[in-house]
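## retry 2 of 3
previous attempt timed out at serialization; input unchanged, resubmitting
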Amino acid sequence: MKEKIKRLYSKYKTDAFIFTNKTETFYLSGAQFDGFWILPVKDEIFIICPKMIENQVKEYFGTKDIHTYTGVSFAKSAAEILQNKKNENVTVDANYINAGDFFTLSDNLKSINMNLLRENGILNDLRMVKTAEEIENLKESCKIVSKVCDIIKSELKPGISELDIHYRIMELFAINKVKESFTPIVASGNNSANPHHASSNRKIGENDIVMIDLGCAYKGYCSDLTRTYFLGKINPKFAQIRDIVRKSHEAVISNIKAGLAFSWADKTARDIISSYGYQDKFIHTTGHGVGIEIHEMPSLSSNAEGVFLQNTAITVEPGIYLEGEFGVRIEDTIIVNENGCEVLTSAAY
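## retry succeeded, writing output
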């Protein structure tokens, strides 16, 4: 944790940080329980927590070099810690602190003549490049979700509903002792034209299409996978759209590597879909970063700034959606490396 925080001080001109959200505290410390704040002040680190979890915090962090501070009001506790530190500025991530905590904290700091500064994505640059341990967790998460997806594929048949499939996914996650990283999406027939359809009681029909988007979290690290299946005799139009999406997906997977622009991925996928006249039917970005959150930096959009770095974890998920008819999306989670990428999800297409 100290090394990560040290790198933050080299980028941000501030006297202290306050991390209030479980996403931040988990990334910095690895603690999978929440209910505490992390307050680094130069070379010191304070954990602010209620009395209720003080023993848990001390057991996890130990007492050496990390100070535990208990109080009913986290904002007041932070001000009490900082009032004797002769600092001027404290920085928080506006993406993670809630409005009530922000204003309460700001008022408490003003009372000791300190300023509360807002930044966006303080930890983004660190989180975008995965460590060896993070990659192993992502691989296991992707292995589990791929296995679950293949089981679901084998069980698809006419007469079962989207919700039947939805709850079967949840059951299989429970069997594998993981939680979902987001609510599974099961969309059949014309429902598949809605990228984020909420699973319904619609039953799968003969010669039907089923799009399934699912992910789990292993040791706090998320996987993300989408497959679109066709039951029975494949409609020629279904097959044509599926082949276009597959070409778009493969073009990115086959050519991506560290050093290419984030926007390159979106342009590559979109150019292929546009060449077949479906540019207006690809209605979301080509993918996103993935890690301890299902959506992280970078965004694979047309206007995204920056380049892929070694060990960046992302999804690649082009799609075509024909309103009132059907949609097709193919998605894999990958790790970008110097010479290409490693595809972590392996469910059958």
